[in-house]
Amino acid sequence: LFSASDALFWFFPIILGYTAGKRFGGNPFTAMVIGGALVHPLILTAFENGQKADALGLDFLGIPVTLLNYSSSVIPIIFSAWLCSILERRLNAWLPSAIKNFFTPLLCLMVITPVTFLLVGPLSTWISELIAAGYLWLYQAVPAFAGAVMGGFWQIFVMFGLHWGLVPLCINNFTVLGYDTMIPLLMPAIMAQVGAALGVFLCERDAQKKVVAGSAAL
User: Fold this and answer.
1) What integer pLDDT is reported at residue 33 of this predicted model?
2) How distant, in Å, are the alpha carbons of 3, 13, 19, 55, 92 from that of 47?
3) Could you please report the per-residue DSSP string of 140-207?
4) Cβ within 8 Å of residue 2, ≥6 positions away
5) Where are the transmembrane segments (predicted)?
């Protein structure tokens, strides 16, 4: 049951790959494959191994690759689907009709997948580290305001995949101090969203909206 409930969020890049690809006018299945690459077991394993102190760096054609856990992320696959749709239109205009049905998706995957890992990864890492440093400074200066900022923006950080820059802070706090200051700031915001979804589920008369709200609350 947990696997069934967690599957939607874990494979979000694949599902969003289809919807974003369709929305941008590209081949949704090509975008789905790019989303699948983001959450491929080999990538997740490489990410976990990269957290070790003696880990070896990964590169693509000599260019260092910054690996992240893209499961449940939103923005990377949307950005990739947008780029893919642009490239796909160009290729369809350039390639002969006899070969474009095969070569257009192939070339899109060969170009956009590396670009996603090479550009989105480093950019997300840089922004995550910036947010982490900002939180530490803000919590030491004005703890109450830090709580308001983190509680208000946490779900946005999760959507962008930027929360991974803050997770090591929580782990380090538990290891060194035995407690963490961030999680108590986040839980009220998360539970408030659960309460809002549950309220819609209980009060909404539209059956379709009740289903969506009930699933969101769970």
Assistant:
1) 92
2) 21, 16, 26, 10, 35
3) HH-HHHHHHHHHHHHHHHHHHTGGGGTHHHHHHHHHHTSS-SSHHHHHHHHHHHHHHHHHHHHH---H
4) none
5) 29-47, 67-87, 99-120, 126-149, 185-203
> CA neighbours within 13 Å on the CB side: how many for 127?
14
Q: Show the tokens assigned to 52.
A: 């070790």
Q: Are 28 and 22 in contact (CB under 8 A)?
A: yes
DSSP 57: P
CB < 8 Å & 24+ apart, contacts of 140-147: 143/181, 146/185, 147/185
pTM (two decimals): 0.61
Pairwise CA distance, residues 127 & 206, whole Å = 40
Please report, for residues 13, 124, 154, 199, the alpha-carbon distance to residue 215 in angstroms, rounded to integers and kept in the order given: 19, 29, 20, 12
Cα–Cα dist 49/45, whole Å: 6
- The tens digit of pLDDT for each residue in 122-163 reads 776 677 677 777 778 888 888 888 888 888 888 787 776 667
* Count of C-beta atoms within a 10 Å radius of residue 13: 28
**Separation CA 29–CA 39 (nearest Å):** 15
CB within 8 Å of 171: residues ≥ 6 apart: none
Structure tokens belonging to residue 192: 């408030």
